[in-house]
Predict the structure.
Amino acid sequence: MDLDESYVDDRRERANEPLYIPPIAAEPTTSINLAQTLFQPSEFDESLEDQLAQSISSCDRRHPLVSTEIPNVFPHRYDKNFLILTSAGKPIYAMKDGDGTIAYMGVIHTIMNYFKLKEDQDLRCIENGDVRFAFLDREPIVLVAYSARGETSNELFSQLDFLHSYLLSSLSERQLSKIFSKRQNFDLRNFLESTDFENLDEICSLLCERLYPDALLGALRSLSMKKSHRAQLHEAMSQQLTKEKDLPRGTLLYGLIVAPENKLCSVLRPKGHTLHTTDLHLLFCLIFHRFQNLDDSQELWVPICFPKFNANGFLYGYIKFLPKCNSILVLISAQKDAFFNLKSFADHLIKDISSNGLLEEIHKAKGFKISDIPAPLVHHFIYKSKKHVQYVMPELELHSDTEPEQLIELERKFMTYYQQIHNSVVRDDGLAFNKSCLNFIRWDSDAIEPSEEPIAMLGLGWITPKFELYLICNNGVDDKHVIFESAKRIISWCRKHESRLFVNEGAIF
Amino acid sequence: MLQFKLVLLGDSSVGKSSIVHRFVKDSFDEFRESTIGAAFLSQTIKIEDKGSQQEVVIKFEIWDTAGQERYKSLAPMYYRNANAALVVYDVTQQDSLAKAQGWVNELKTKVGEDDLVICLVGNKLDLCTEEGESSSKPKAVESSDAEGYANEQGLLFHEVSAKTGEGVKQVFQSIGEKLYEFKKHELANSKGRQGAGGDTVNVQLQRPSTNDATSCCG
Ligand SMILES: Nc1nc2c(ncn2[C@@H]2O[C@H](COP(=O)(O)OP(=O)(O)OP(=O)(O)O)[C@@H](O)[C@H]2O)c(=O)[nH]1
Ligand SMILES: [Mg+2]
């Protein structure tokens, strides 16, 4: 391929080239001495060494595209779409709504029915070269993903499940089936509100264009803050609950403080019960998109169905903006008339935590930078603690003059790296290859212009029963020993600061 | 201080939230998000007791409801205990008046009429003034028609612009005055009470007590 030409004429050239080159499973190329370098060996079972040795492999991905800093090895052309239709084949939503989309849906409907009739089984996935179709049949709704970006089938299914969950959160399963039991070919677009379409757009854009690993990892991002401050917050929540004697049992199901960028700050929950991560993702999306310009003059009372909690019923969320820290307090009840009870709870709680200066502390909790951790040559990472079902990552360090488009570009690039790293350590069905698994992945290409750096990107994915680590190295780094050492340092740093990085139990009642 | 509950009703995007925001924050947001569920706000005003010429402070507790069809079945929860209702339409949208009339009917059948002050409010007046030249829209609802209807039904009537702020304060002022007159009568009639002016009276907020965990809409 003539690189210069493809550089000049972006679109036409790139359309012909493979958008995604699947990893080539190679013999392990690293020579890390596991016996020497294993991090805290006592924590792993004995077979781990074997498993690691098995699973270390290296993948090469060549792609002729260069940009500065962390280079982008992924095509800009955006080959992905989500379609939602009714089981009767009526269109509901398309992420990218081109001219042909509607006709497209008809074809999809026909194909799916064909498989249902002929093969007597549901169509789940079609692959053709680099393009993959994934189908999720959730009578009376059908969801389809089309992607040339190399996600695993499982990732596409979980994205579709997220979109489906959104519809349920807005309508509830019960209402949906009620509508369609009356009229099978009901046009659901007439029933959805403009806010539903906006929310779907926002969720799609989060899934496809932003650094939003929440869905991929099935985890929430947590706010890093001083252990003692978080403990004080939780103490205040618990105390308030003991004080509110006339708050009838069961009125308050769940309480959350959500910091900017949808970081979980603290939790109030009943013993032995947590909300499903997907339900919380939906709630956080709602907060993120709907209530961004909320101010403290208003309190909201919002019915929302948490599909994984109970797809047939609605819960009610009391939502209040917390002054001084731009965070949101959410209190959830199963009773639709509990607003004033929850308001009184919230008023007292807020008074309490603001008199302690805790709102300022939430505001001051600024996260950490990659430079806070002695991990040479690592550009960025995501660390997920499985116990907490939460993840952390260093703040993106941006120039003050970064344009919004540049930020999106950057986030998308990071996200694609992480997706590919993640996919190199999980199977197509989303399960890990092994209980523990470590893998390096490379993206290489020669410089196109003499002024540009050649691409030699190295990434690492490391999954164990306790944590998941995904990291991206600086361009040009290829010393796997050093990276492995850095990875271990990150892990021990995250473990050491665990109670600061993650919301542990929360306030339990 | 007197406390009154006020609810806003009306079709989606007629400007209910914008009116409340103008009243509470004295600001306007061109890109306001459609309300989901309902928003609770409060604001105090001062009115003058016509007899004693004393200032009276009135606190409004306001429910700004969502106009989207989906939330319609939740509305009774908000208007059931209201002292006043602002039924809003958009002066450039004829069918928003029809929706408003629907709300008026619902209020009259579901809420004890004598307790509830209903105010019909036509919003977005700024769109119909000549100043805006190119952006000027035809007025779809004639003031006289809406006013005639309001008189017939015994409603207060105002035309406002949340954008410029024109008329917004007066809406709440006139509702406050009317509620105060009611209250004063009530207080005068109940023996053992002193004159109304300086008293602190809380209009008790009743908390509805239905327990329905499973249904939000319909
Ligand atoms: N020109 C003009 N635009 C207005 C006025 N009031 C509201 N708008 C605009 O109309 C749109 C809808 O206003 P909202 O206040 O959100 O309407 P709403 O009645 O609260 O709508 P729902 O929350 O969906 O029920 C917004 O884009 C406002 O900026 C007004 O007085 N003049
Ligand atoms: Mg509104």
Q: What stands out?
A: Residues B 10, 12-18, 30, 32, 34-35, 66-68, 123-124, 126-127, 161-163 surround guanosine-5'-triphosphate (ligand 1) (CB under 6 Å).
